[in-house]
Amino acid sequence: MEALIGPDTVDTAPLETIDAYRDHGKPAQRLEEELERTSGMMASLTEIGIDMDVVAHRLEDEGVEKFKQPFDKLMKAIAEKASATATRST
């Protein structure tokens, strides 16, 4: 989490991760630290055949799915409650 702290950022970590960070983390803006070294590392990945666009798309797809499943479950529970309430009202 620490490497992702910076201005205008949002981190959607699980509650357990946030709790652990509260206990052990050292908050500071780190997102823009060591940009030259990071650029070199990214170039190295490309050189060994790792396509970061493909990696980013996969992570995005997996992340969306991890949000979608609980959202769908929540919407189903709300619909069931609404239906049960409507049934009792008639």
Topology:
Elements: H1 15-24, H2 35-47, H3 52-89
In short:
With 90 residues, this protein is mainly alpha-helical. The chain is 68% helix and 0% strand. The protein has helices at residues 15-24, 35-47, 52-89.
Q: Radius of gyration over alpha carbons?
A: 21 Å
* Overall morphology: elongated
| Series of H and E elements | HHH
Total E-strand runs: 0
What is the CA-CA span between the terminal residues? 51 Å
What does this structure look like?
Helix content is 68%, strand content 0%. The protein is elongated. The chain has a domain at 51-90. It is an all-alpha fold and 90 residues long.
From the structure above, extract its key features.
90 residues; mainly alpha; 68% helix; 3 helices; 0% strand
